[in-house]
Amino acid sequence: MDEITLVTAIAPPAPGLPAAVRDAARATLLAEIATEREARTTPGRPTVPGTRPRTGVPRSRHRVRWGIVGAALAAAAASAAITLLSVLGHPPSSPGGRAHPPATAAAVLLRAARATAAVPDLHPRADQFVFKEAISQGPYRTGRRPPRILTRDWLSADGMHGGLTLQRYLPGKIWVHGLPVPDCSTLPHSNWNWKANCPLPPAYVTNLPRTLAGMKDYLVPDGRWGGKPGALPPAPPAAGALEQVISMYQFIVPHRTAALMFRALSTIKGIHLAGTVTTLAGRKGIATAAVDPFRGIRIELIFDPNTYQYIGDLEIAMNGKTMHAGTEAGNAVIRMAVVGKAGELP
Amino acid sequence: MAGLAAPSDAAIIERSVAVPECFAEIFDRHAEGIYRYAAQRLGQQAAADVMSEVFLAAFRNRRRYDTGRDDARPWLYGIAINVISQYQRAQRRYARVLATVRDVPATDVVADEVLDRVAAAQLRPRIMEVLAGLSDRDRELVLLVAWAELSYEQAAQALGIPLGTVRSRLHRIRVKLRRAAGLNLLPPSKNM
Q1: Backbone torsions φ then ψ of B116, nearest 5 degrees
Q2: Residue B183 CB-density burial (10 A; 0-12 exposed, 13-18 middle, 19+ buried)
Q3: Do A14 and B114 touch (CB under 8 A)?
Q4: Which of A33, A279, A345, B47 is least enclosed by beta carbons within 10 angstroms?
Q5: What number is the ipTM of this complex?
Q6: Do the chains contact at B45 and A37, CB–CB below 8 Å?
Q7: How many other CB atoms are found less than 10 A from the CB of residue B122?
Q8: Which of A296-305, B80-89, B117-126, B150-159 has the least mean pLDDT?
Q9: Using a CB-CB distance cutoff of 8 angstroms, which residues of chain A are in contact with residue B48?
Q10: How far B1 CA sits from the closest chain A CA (Å)?
Q11: CB-CB under 8 Å, A1 with B93
Q12: What b/e string do you get for B86-98 counting C-beta neighbours within 10 Å, with b at 16 or more?
């Protein structure tokens, strides 16, 4: 026995590759392959109406929070939701049975990307609706926290078939309707409602960036914002990227796109592991966070500690610059599904 | 009639530049080996993350693969070394942060998992001491040869160093191991 063989002899056991781990890793690789394939076959630069502008017009830094009497359109635009059917109550099995917590935010985000890529896509038909139920908390400047709001949204998959929003306070019993959402498929184009509102943004968006570089470029702010006297400077890249991910979730995207978002986030410096936090729905999760010092807030993206599915977001006021110090604002997703009609519960 | 030989790794990688779906075959061939090596180095939980990241990195960089090398293992293990190293650095940073928060010495929080597991098995503690005392690059080299079972030439490719450098480093490491094990001069391994 020579010296190298001695080292071989003391090697720890080399366990076989568990099928679940193999399948999850293979799914992640296939998602990456599909992303490259689609990037090759799709001409032009993807754009999404109502999101990050490329014409020099600065994007809004303030996500509109849901109001109890807010317009359904504004509510739809403000909701930070998740694209996955399995978000709550039906998590996919955690591959490999990992009990070892990740040490970095990048590790959490990569696990989230793998978990997201492994879940079957919703693929709603154009005439179907994406149902989202979530709890939200808006920012407030006084020391008195307003009640949280439970919202149910029915969003038209292609934006052409109307929709519905219902909201109530927590605790509370009375549901309030949001403003009616026009059914653009039946309205005459000469109708004022069509001219004012149609077509609406589709709830199911498939033309977001499809490469890692493209997604990273999409998420990181270009540094230009406002320009008005007294306006806050742009968010640092990490904080801006987290905000952009959260705002993108107002729509529903294919899981490969969501996975790509998380992978892109994992490459952005300044996102740190914020430990275990509690969402507005009372669930414990692992948070990845970034600080916006100009607005005095910490933005947190929260994942289920077992499945690494996205379960909500929080904005924590570190000082009183934009919110009362110590307060929390954010969204927590309860459930999502594809249904046939607005108002139908899954 | 003789059956057709399976295409080499190089042929598959070359084809995957135009047909990316082909790259999944590289995963199917080598995921087990990369996972086992990562598990030996870091434990099973981390091995899943590392293995997945290795193949993502390999796919993204496949255009740079030297198609003159039929066997992709050295290339993949070279990537694995980098990913493992990044993971270990992150773990050490985490340990230092944790030690700061909990007032626990960092060495008590995260020791070298490799050394811990093997030491726990009470296998050749003196060998372990030698391995712990090696530089990172020397330790990577000897573990690639001893645990991943790469040849000297494959290890050289994985690490991006000349074959002569591999031989000279391993010779130096052998001397250390020999002294630690209290062994007489042994015949060299077949790889030399």
Answers
A1: -60, -50
A2: middle
A3: no
A4: A345
A5: 0.76
A6: no
A7: 9
A8: B117-126
A9: 21, 24-25, 95-96, 98
A10: 35
A11: no
A12: ebbebbeebbeee
Q: What is residue A53's predicted lDDT score, i.e. its pLDDT? A: 29
**Sign (positive/negative) of CA torsion A207, A212, A216, A217?**
negative
Which pLDDT value is given to residue B94? Answer: 53
The reported pTM is 0.50
pLDDT band at A201 (very low <50, low <70, confident <90, very high): confident
> What is the predicted pLDDT for the residue at B171?
86
Q: Do A7 and B146 lie within an 8 Å CB cutoff?
A: yes
Residue (of B168, B143, B171, B173) closest to B158 by Cα position: B143
- Whether A91 has a pLDDT exceeding 80, the answer reads no
pLDDT of residue B182: 58
Minimum mean pLDDT among A153-167, A281-295, A324-338: which range? A324-338
Mean pLDDT of B23-46: 92
Choose the closest CB to B59 out of A16, A17, A32. A32
Q: Where are the beta strands (DSSP E) in A91-207?
A: 129-137, 148-156, 163-170, 176-177
Q: Considering only CB atoms, which chain B residues are within 8 Å of A9?
A: 123-124
Give A109: exposed, middle or buried? Use CB within 10 Å, 0-12, 13-18, 19+. buried
Mean pLDDT throughout B121-139? 76
CB contact (8 A) between residue B55 and residue A25:
yes
The single residue listed with the structure tokens 């032009």 is A44
Residue pair A292/A235 in contact (Cβ under 8 Å)? The answer is yes
Inter-chain residue contact A10 with B124, CB threshold 8 Å: yes
Q: Which residues of B touch A26 (CB under 8 A)?
A: 24, 27-28, 31
Strand, helix or coil for residue A257:
helix
Whether B118 and A104 lie within 8 Å, measured CB to CB: no
| C-alpha–C-alpha distance, residues A298 and A221, integer Å | 17
A277: left (phi over 0), alpha (psi -120 to 50) or beta: beta
**Residue A111 confidence (pLDDT) above 70:** yes
Name chain A contacts of B51, Cβ cutoff 8 Å: 17, 21, 25
Handedness of CA A52, A57, A61, A65 (dihedral sign): negative
Percent above pLDDT 90 for chain A: 10
